[in-house]
Amino acid sequence: MSREKTENWLKAASAIVIGFGLVMLLGTLPATSAPVAFLTDLIFWPVDGRQVVSAPETRLLWAISGGILTGWGLLLWQISTRLYPQDPSLARTLILSSIGIWFLADGLGSILAGAPLNAVLNIGFLLLFFVPLWRPIQRAEV
């Protein structure tokens, strides 16, 4: 994959992470919580409407999670646009280690919380970043 294509892919992946963070922030208000309510219901399969996301402590966790995810997405964007063009090897290391530890922690936490489907769905996010970075940049492209 060319540098330009990799950078564009990483920017799109970062935008998706930011988007998910913003959707999570919608869960903080009862009037806008339908997307996260559905997501929660989906993750705790089957989709049956039994999950409740309206408790204040749940809304607080949506706010914290959404804020962290939005900030992390912005950091990934900046690494992809500012560092990757200058030092692709360092950018690759930073992104893959960040995504890797997130994947392990989120997946394990999801399984322990009784939501193993979330761990499976996280593979999609992992692939968003792993696919363009799975091979180190070739010196010939530099």
Description of the molecule:
This protein is mainly alpha-helical and 142 residues long. It has one domain (3-133). 74% of the residues lie in helices and 0% in strands. It has five helices and no strands. The protein has helices at 3-26, 34-43, 56-83, 88-112, 116-133. Helix 1 runs antiparallel to helix 5 and helix 3 (56-83) runs antiparallel to helix 4. The chain is elongated and about 45 Å long. The model has no long low-confidence stretch (mean pLDDT 92).
Gyration radius over CA: 17 Å
Order of helices and strands: HHHHH
- Tell me the overall shape: elongated
How many domains comprise the coordinates? Answer: 1
Mean pLDDT over all positions: 92
The biggest sheet amounts to: none
> Structural class of the helix and strand makeup?
mainly alpha
The proportion of strand residues reads: under 5%
Stretches with pLDDT under 50, minimum 5 residues: none
Termini separation comes to 13 Å
Question: How helix-rich are the residues, as a percent range?
Answer: over 70%
Number of strands: 0
Total number of helical segments?
5
Topology:
Elements: H1 3-26, H2 34-43, H3 56-83, H4 88-112, H5 116-133
